[in-house]
């Protein structure tokens, strides 16, 4: 079983080419894939200044505000015009879109999922109550608020900003929040 735990604070920060922020990569699959060959990739971005998003042709993206004032996403063609200012409200868009991000109220942190359209698609949900999470061969769970107990083939505990991801193993989970304000990001990858 390929189960990998992570703590956001321990992930190395990579500066953006344009200097507008940094990215902390959580996972990039398959192992060893670069930005031109990944099937799916999850990261957390610290957006420190307004500017353009990098274009990723053939990639579908889901961005979720974690903290901070958020950004207004505006596409050059007008098809994307979205204020990303509500925490834990995923927003999906095409990676080839020419997007400019304008900070709304200071810097922010975002959870980013990218999937290669020809290979797989992502389903990202925000969990706030106990539930059974269906089996998936590849996925990721990250506690954003509160502590969580995950029961599967073995029991796992997550504190805020901790998570786990897996690949090449069909895992199902029973998710148990440990406080009323708990929130967890749950990602499943679907392969056609």
Structural domain tally = 2
The string of secondary-structure elements, in order, is: EEEEEEEEEEEEEEEEEEE
Query: Architecture of the largest domain, according to CATH?
Result: Sandwich
Give the helix tally: 0
Radius of gyration: 16 Å
Shape, principal axes of CA atoms:
globular
Structural class: mainly beta
Helical content (DSSP H or I, runs of 4+): under 10%
- Distance between the ends: 22 Å
Strand content: over 45%
CATH topology of the largest domain: Jelly Rolls
Fourth CATH level, the homologous superfamily of the largest domain: Jelly Rolls
Question: What profile does the largest beta sheet have?
Answer: 6 strands, antiparallel
Number of strands: 19
Strand order of the largest sheet: 2-3-4-11-6-9
Show unreliable segments.
Answer: none
Write the layout of secondary structure elements.
Layout: E1 2-7, E2 13-15, E3 21-29, E4 40-47, E5 51-52, E6 59-68, E7 71-75, E8 81-84, E9 91-94, E10 99-103, E11 108-116, E12 120-127, E13 131-136, E14 139-145, E15 148-151, E16 155-158, E17 162-167, E18 171-177, E19 183-191
Antiparallel strand pairs: 1-17, 2-3, 3-4, 4-11, 5-10, 6-9, 6-11, 7-8, 7-10, 12-19, 13-18, 14-17, 14-19, 15-16, 15-18
Textual characterization of the structure:
The protein is mostly beta strands and 192 residues long. The protein has 2 domains: 11-116, Jelly Rolls (Sandwich), CATH 2.60.120; 120-191, Jelly Rolls (Sandwich), CATH 2.60.120.10. The protein contains no helices and 19 strands. It has strands spanning 2-7, 13-15, 21-29, 40-47, 51-52, 59-68, 71-75, 81-84, 91-94, 99-103, 108-116, 120-127, 131-136, 139-145, 148-151, 155-158, 162-167, 171-177, 183-191. Strands 2-3-4-11-6-9 form a 6-stranded antiparallel sheet, with no helix packed on it. The protein has a 5-stranded antiparallel sheet with strand order 1-17-14-19-12, with no helix packed on it. The mean pLDDT is 93.
